[in-house]
Amino acid sequence: MPDALPARRSFWAVARQPRMLVVLLLLLLAAAVCGRLGVWQIDRAYERASLAAEQEAAEQAAAGPASLGELLPPQSALPGELVGREAWVSGTYEPDGQMLVTGRSLDGVEGYLVLTPLRVSDDGTAGESWADLSGPPVLPVVRGWVDSPDPGAEALEVPAGEVRVTGWLQASESTARTGEVPANADGPPLTQDIASSALANTWDGPIYAAYAVLTSSDPAQPSAASGGPAPLPRPVLDGGTDVDLQNFFYALQWWVFGLFAVALWVRLVRDEMAGGRRERRRDRRPGDREGRHDDDPIGTGIAGLPSS
């Protein structure tokens, strides 16, 4: 009866061999290099996106404000490329509809946005943009920021009569926030969102699906130094493209190469396990040249033919 084959070596028994450990260290080094290159590509992706955004902002600032009617008709969604675009429009404030938007920060301090409806009288189209609507539309205007729900008369004061407003455009928000808004007995009503869909139920007439963040007005409103709302910086597109996709995919490729290096070592260990077992089987097989048995009439030639 032939001797039993030796037990197959375990994965870790093969992996702990010195030469396998050396190979593992080399491949781990290669994987670390690939990982670092992937991180570098991600950094480049965000850097390029940031530079592109800065260049776009500079180009828009250099172009100066455009008429609101040239950029956006009433009740139409604001395209992403117009977020942060400066526009002008004329109209009359309706202070009775003024509200404060809760949970908004400026320079790390939480406070409120002063949101005021502007009944538009001139958007640069001589009224053609709302000719098919029920009347002149309303534009929500964020006139600035205050730190209290009862900011005082100066912060809530608006220029009387027709005013020409210039501001950064921003897309209407959703009404996804939950929870009840507390009553504000000492000040204007509170709201969580600047959502045209909700404001349309409060303000009469058609409404823009966007709002303007005030940069200037003529006549001017009270300044922050005299108790008026504090000015706000140029808004940015929330949830927009903030990474260069080409560099992002380069990063993924480097990380895949790193994982492949580790997988290659696992494959080498498994091949070593299988190869060692084949060698032991060959050494113990009847009919080998150095261990051939005389009572083997057939031998181990190809397809069972006697070997020479």
TrEMBL record:
This is SURF1-like protein. InterPro entries: Surf1/Shy1 (IPR002994), Surf1/Surf4 (IPR045214). Residues 285-296 have a biased composition (Basic and acidic residues). Belongs to the SURF1 family. Pfam families: SURF1 (PF02104). The chain crosses the membrane at residues 248-268. It comes from the Bacteria. Keywords: Cell membrane, Membrane, Transmembrane, Transmembrane helix. It is found in: Cell membrane; Membrane. Residues 275-308 are annotated as: Disordered. It comes from Isoptericola haloaureus. It is a multi-pass membrane protein. The lineage of its organism: Bacteria, Bacillati, Actinomycetota, Actinomycetes, Micrococcales. The keyword Transmembrane helix applies.
